[in-house]
Write a structure and sequence with these properties.
Blueprint: E1 2-3, E2 7-11, H1 16-24, H2 27-33, H3 42-47, H4 49-53, E3 58-64, E4 69-77, E5 84-91, H5 100-115, E6 120-126, H6 130-138, E7 142-153, E8 156-166, H7 167-174
Parallel strand pairs: 5-6
Antiparallel strand pairs: 1-2, 2-3, 3-4, 4-5, 6-8, 7-8
Amino acid sequence: MLKGNKILLRCVERRDINIFFDIWGDADVRRLDGSFRLPPSKEDILNNFNKFINLDKKYLSIINEKGILIGYTTYREVSDSKNVYIIGITLAQNFWNRGYGQDAVKVLLKYLFMDMAVHRVELEVLDFNSRAIQCYKKCGFIEEGKKRKTCFSYGHYRDVIIMGILREEFINNSL
């Protein structure tokens, strides 16, 4: 378990899948995800739970200070780079704008940089998701570029912003 100021990150448990499906079912959450891919069925995930939690992409459940599961983070090593990871975060809509996302990202970054000795962490975010972009900047991420008109959302092709942070930047910002 990884502890922050407002949240706790822990391994995904079988019972978490029901809440994940509720989050994935929210159209606003899916619009901000950028992929619009629907997850496999709940039954398929539950029947293959051990495979699901042992994928290259690791999932961690986000638990708030009241013990409520409010979302999840993901991380995985970029396939063609050593010690370069890509992360993601998804929160249930009724927990947005409360600092949970920022705390979860900072806790995950600390784990990746300090415990796993990762060199770089990156992420992608849709250009209109200003709340997420501000959160990532507060966590030390720098906007590095964009993929122009690469994601279809809200009836238009949108830019995807690429953001990254290096280990030394994280350490310098944490002191």
